[in-house]
Design brief:
The protein is of the alpha/beta class. The protein is 41% helix and 21% strand. A 9-stranded mixed sheet has the order 3-2-1-9-6-5-4-7-8, sandwiched between helices. Helix 1 runs antiparallel to helix 4 and helix 4 crosses helix 6.
Length: 287
C-alpha cells in the first residue's frame, strides 16, 4: 500500500499527504537516484534506455516530440534564463530529455530560436508558460504556425513539481547522457527548491502535465477493446506485462482452437447425447 501511494502521488505528494511535510526528507523534490539515462544509436535509429533490468531499445520512429518553454523576462545576469526543452515521448509514456537551450536571450532572439528548434525536431506540441508579457510571444508563435499550447500555472512552483517528481520516482524520466548542458540541468533540478534558478523544474512540471493530458493521434488506439496497460509503470515492468499479456492471449487462442476442433468432430454438437446417456444411466434408468 505504501509503495502504491508513493507511485501515485510521488515523493512530494506522499510527503505532504502522509507525513505532513510539504518537502520530502533531504530537501530536494527531484531525486538524483530516480533519474535514468539513455543514449541514441544512430545506426539502428533507436533510443537505448538504461533500466535496472538492462537496456531497452525503443525505435525513434515510434516516439513523438514535445517542447516546453519558460520564457525569460529580463537580460540581467541575475534574472531567469530562457529555457526550451525538447522531449521524446515513447509509446509507454516514458519522457526522454533530448535537448535544451538555456541562455539569456532577448525577445527578438527568442522569436528566432524557437522556430529554428521546432524545424529541427518537429514537435507535436509546444507548451509555453503564459504569464504577463509572454502572451505577446505566444501570439507571435501561433501566427508562425507553431503548435503552441499555452500553459497557465494554477499553483505555486513547489506544488506544480508534484507531477514532475512522479515521473522520476516511477522510473519514467530519462536524461540524454550526451546532451550539452546536462550537468547544469541536473545541478538545478536536483537542488530545487534551494537552487538560485528554477527554469528546469518549471519546464519539467509543464512536461508532466503535457504527457498526462495530450494524446498524439495514431499513437494510442482508442478503439482497441483490449485492456490498456498502466503506463505509470516503468518500461521494464511494462515489457514484462506485455509478455504476460501476449502469453495469455496465445493460451486463450489455443484453448479456443482445441474447443473448436472438438466441436467440429462431434458434428457441431457441444454435447454428445449418447455419451451423456451412458454416463447418467444407472440400472437401466436415467437419473
Amino acid at each position: 500500500m505504501i509503495e502504491k501511494a508513493k507511485r501515485q502521488h510521488g515523493p512530494l505528494g506522499y510527503s505532504a499527504l502522509f507525513q505532513q511535510s510539504p518537502i520530502p526528507a533531504g530537501g530536494a523534490i527531484y531525486k538524483e537516484k530516480d533519474r535514468r539515462w539513455f543514449t541514441i544509436d544512430q545506426t539502428t535509429q533507436s533510443y537505448l534506455l538504461e533500466t535496472p533490468r538492462g537496456r531497452v531499445t525503443v525505435p525513434i520512429a515510434d516516439c513523438w516530440y514535445c517542447a516546453v518553454i519558460d520564457l525569460a523576462t529580463s537580460l540581467k545576469t541575475s534574472a531567469d534564463f530562457f529555457l526550451m526543452e525538447t522531449w521524446a515521448i515513447t509509446p509507454y509514456n516514458d519522457a526522454l530529455l533530448l535537448h535544451a537551450l538555456h541562455e539569456h536571450l532577448d525577445f527578438p532572439e527568442q522569436q528566432k530560436q524557437i522556430p529554428l528548434i521546432f524545424q529541427r525536431f518537429m514537435h507535436s506540441i509546444i507548451a509555453v508558460e503564459q504569464v504577463g508579457y509572454q502572451l505577446a510571444m505566444i501570439q507571435y508563435l501561433v501566427s508562425q504556425g507553431l503548435p503552441i499550447k499555452p500553459f497557465k500555472p494554477q499553483t505555486d512552483k513547489i506544488m506544480r513539481s508534484t507531477t514532475g517528481s512522479i515521473l522520476y520516482s516511477n522510473g519514467k524520466a530519462y536524461h540524454n547522457k550526451n546532451m550539452a548542458g546536462i550537468e547544469e540541468c541536473e545541478k538545478e533540478l536536483f537542488s530545487f527548491p534551494k537552487a538560485p534558478h528554477d527554469e528546469y523544474p518549471d519546464c519539467h512540471a509543464m512536461l508532466a502535465f503535457v504527457i498526462a493530458s495530450a494524446l498524439r493521434p495514431g499513437l494510442i488506439d482508442l478503439d482497441n477493446e483490449a485492456e490498456a496497460l498502466d503506463t505509470t509503470l516503468s518500461i521494464e515492468q511494462l515489457k514484462v506485462a506485455e509478455a504476460i499479456t501476449e502469453e495469455q492471449r496465445q493460451q486463450a487462442e489455443e484453448a479456443a482452437r482445441v474447443h473448436e476442433e472438438a466441436f467440429t468432430k462431434k458434428g457441431g454438437l457441444l454435447l454428445d447425447p449418447f455419451e451423456w446417456s451412458e454416463s447418467h444411466e444407472i440400472g437401466g434408468d436415467w437419473s
